[in-house]
């Protein structure tokens, strides 16, 4: 298997993160222009209640620096140690897909139960990816 293939899911997560931060910027501008949020709010992120659409995007951006950090570590480890197999590649893409779904639901609809299911799915896939990487390293 071509070793570089494992980097594509990682770059896809980078792309998701940059899409969310771009949407966050757009939503902040929208909050000031049309939702009445004063620009002074951003000095300390306090003094007002930002609109929900802005909060959801900001929260999702924060989420992208929680469990995905483990994902990045596993991907880099698998690449550096040349321990890439088809199971790891499938799990990496499954993780990315579940995180894209989680971000979409969180930002767009914020259906809590569906969001929770996707979050839990991403956690189980990440756990499986970690276990797979561990097995690759000890063999």
Report on this model:
The chain has 139 residues and is an all-alpha fold. It has a single domain, classed as Membrane associated eicosanoid/glutathione metabolism-like domain (Four Helix Bundle (Hemerythrin (Met), subunit A), Up-down Bundle). Helix content is 77%, strand content 0%. It has 6 helices and no strands. The protein has helices spanning 7-33, 41-44, 52-63, 68-80, 86-109, 112-138. The longest helix is centred in the N-terminal third of the chain and has 27 residues, at 7-33. The chain is elongated and about 60 Å long.
Query: Would you count the extended β strands for me?
Result: 0
Q: Low-confidence spans: pLDDT under 50, at least 5 residues?
A: none
> Could you please say which CATH topology applies here?
Four Helix Bundle (Hemerythrin (Met), subunit A)
Query: Nearest-angstrom radius of gyration?
Result: 18 Å
How many domains would you count in the coordinates?
Answer: 1
Residue share in helix: over 70%
Largest sheet: none
> Which geometry do the CA atoms define?
elongated
Report the CATH C-level class.
Mainly Alpha
Tally of helical segments: 6
**What is the CATH architecture term?**
Up-down Bundle
Offer a few descriptive terms:
mainly alpha; 6 helices; single chain; elongated; Four Helix Bundle (Hemerythrin (Met), subunit A)
